[in-house]
Amino acid sequence: MRASRRAVLASWILTAGLSSAQTPTPTQAPQGPPPRQGCTDPKSREFDFWLGQWDVLAPKGQFAGVSRITLIDRGCVLHESWASGPGGYVGQSLNSVGPDGKWHQTWVDTTGARLDLAGGLVGGSMVMEADVPQPDPSKPPLRNRITWTPMSPILVRQHWESSTDLGKTWTTSFDGQYHRIGEKTLASDSFMNKLQGGWIGTGQLMKRDSHVELEVEPTLGRPLFKLNWRNVVTSDPRVLFEGMAMYEDLGQGSLNAMWWDNGGAKHSIQAAANETSMTSLWGANGKTVYTLLPKGGLEVVDSTKAKDGTWSEFGKATLRRK
Questions:
Q1: In the chain, which ranges are E strands?
Q2: What would the pLDDT profile of 237-288 be if each residue is shown by its tens digit?
Q3: Number of other CB atoms surrounding residue 216 within 10 Å
Q4: Is 223 helix (H, G, I), strand (E, B) or coil?
Q5: Handedness of CA 157, 54, 65, 61 (dihedral sign)
């Protein structure tokens, strides 16, 4: 959702406020929603006006953050990816129609907050509500009501209201303007464009057979790609290695990235790519090589450098598209 999440939930979690000012990216006429592969019924398309790349501004024009809304799961789910303007706060939501015929949204973020909303279209606006228990059990829950209204093809208003008396009176918590921004695309033959999507396969981690999954998706309407890696040792599913990297494609085969994993590692990456492979150097003594295979698969090899300058392979996986 948005930086407003933090303002609304501040009554029950300690979080920061809105971000500093920044000049928004000029808007551009939308290209229309992408074609659905699965859920094509009119009900599942009611929230399509929110799809796209957005700069979000607070009522006085201050820059709040960026948001990217995409379709996943064969077009049945809207996935929201949010990052605040000053950084340090990100969140995601999943939006879909439930068996009750209502729209549902589940939001989670880096503060540990979670919000489950439900509702539907009201006069052309998407309206969802959720009750959040207050720390004092003697008080009624904090009721949240969020309304998304398409103002034009390039502008959506998101009005967040809260109530401490079960909806008798409401207070505006955030009134944000979503300004559509143009897609900054790379050449179709760039390596990251070819790598994006879901991958699954098998491999070895420290000479132990493993199940491997990789997800690569563009994000925030810029030449940024989020890479999620998951490696589970087959003989012992408790041995799990997960990592995430954010790659910035600088063009002409040059990339920068930052990596985090569940082992506590965090390091910067310098990468070089051509049309079929990418070599990511993490520090002076580690590298990962991604190679697109002729028959459509993907090979991923991890190596470390010894004192004599030779590279020693410690992980290798072969994947196919999901």
A1: 52-57, 63-72, 77-84, 90-97, 103-109, 114-122, 125-132, 142-152, 155-163, 171-180, 197-205, 208-219, 224-233, 240-251, 254-261, 266-273, 277-281, 286-292, 298-305, 311-321
A2: 788 889 999 898 888 888 989 999 998 988 899 999 998 999 999 988 999 9
A3: 21
A4: coil
A5: negative
Cβ count within 10 A of residue 176: 24
pLDDT band at 220 (very low <50, low <70, confident <90, very high): low
Check residues 191 and 61 and name the one with the higher pLDDT: 191
Alpha-helical regions (H) of the chain: 4-8, 191-195
Pairwise CA distance, residues 118 & 275, whole Å: 44
Q: What is the pLDDT of residues 180-203, one digit of tens each?
A: 886 555 556 789 989 989 999 999
pTM equals 0.51
- Residue 33 carries which DSSP code? P
CA atoms of 73 and 319, how far apart (whole Å):
20
| 248-to-37, 90, 245 alpha-carbon distances in Å | 29, 17, 10
For residue 212, the one-letter residue type is V
**Separation CA 230–CA 178 (nearest Å):** 33
Q: Number of C-alpha atoms within 13 angstroms, CB side, residue 226?
A: 11
Nearest C-alpha neighbor of 201 from the set 103, 296, 75, 84: 296
Residue carrying structure tokens 């790659």? 247
Reading the block at residue 126, the tokens are: 């998407």
| CA distances (Å), origin 199, targets 192, 216, 273, 315 | 14, 9, 19, 17
Mean pLDDT value across the chain: 84
Per DSSP bridges, beta strands 155-163 and 286-292 are: unpaired
* Of 174, 149, 206, 187, residue with least CA distance to 58: 174
What pLDDT sits at residue 185? 53
User: What is the token pair recorded at 236?
Assistant: 């012992």
Statement: residue 6 has pLDDT above 70: no
